[in-house]
Amino acid sequence: VIDTVAPGPRAQVRIDPVGYRDPWLPIFGTPNAVTGMGPNWRYDPASGVVFTETRQQSRPYTEDLTLPAPDPDDLRAAQGPDLVDPSNLDTAGISPAINSLAHRITASAPTRFDKAVALQRFFTDRRNGFRYDLSTGPETSGSALEDFLFRAKRGFCEQFASSMAVLLRAEGIPARVAVGFTPGYVDGDERVITTNDAHAWVEAYFPHYGWVTFDPTPLADGRATMTDRKSGSAGMPR
Questions:
Q1: 187 in active site
Q2: Is 157 part of the annotated catalytic residue set?
Q3: Is 85 a residue of the active site?
Q4: pLDDT per residue over 69-90, tens digit each?
Q5: Checking DSSP bridges between strand 131-132 and strand 154-155, what pairing results, if any?
């Protein structure tokens, strides 16, 4: 599988893990090079993950990166083959009710980009009744996904992200769930990111531009970082 990356400015950041022990490391944007974290770390370009085989402390490390900033009009015009793993298009188990919901939400959206924006707004528009909650509604139908989409409409970021990914795939759009951190807060000339900033969002694939972020979780505390309402996309550390 050949991946592609949306163009954008390049930057370099130093990341200093404090009390962080995990088999994967946070990265920003799309890494061009990651150095300094110690032995036995690897980068998987297909998933965008820096990982190792055991949970361990990383040394401070430096990342040279690209911050993808695709223009909405370019994404609307994006055409070409989907150079992704077939699992990102898997629709096995999607019920007729969920297929119907996806078609209804995107009925007036002419392009892949507009469909993704319409699906994101389905979750973030307060008029639709969805809300962020660390507790979930009771199961009543035997399908946790249908209970969430049609009845309870409350849950945490993983539920919003996985639900939007399913709806994207129902529309034939490659999608995957990404897990990482929102941007935290600025402290002097540093940015501080803690476990309180852990988050999940959706990435949809666009030919020639690669994976583009959409965040469907209706967070009220500003952590979703939806800076471009026209595009509906947001860049976050992973």
A1: no
A2: yes
A3: no
A4: 889 999 999 999 998 999 999 9
A5: parallel
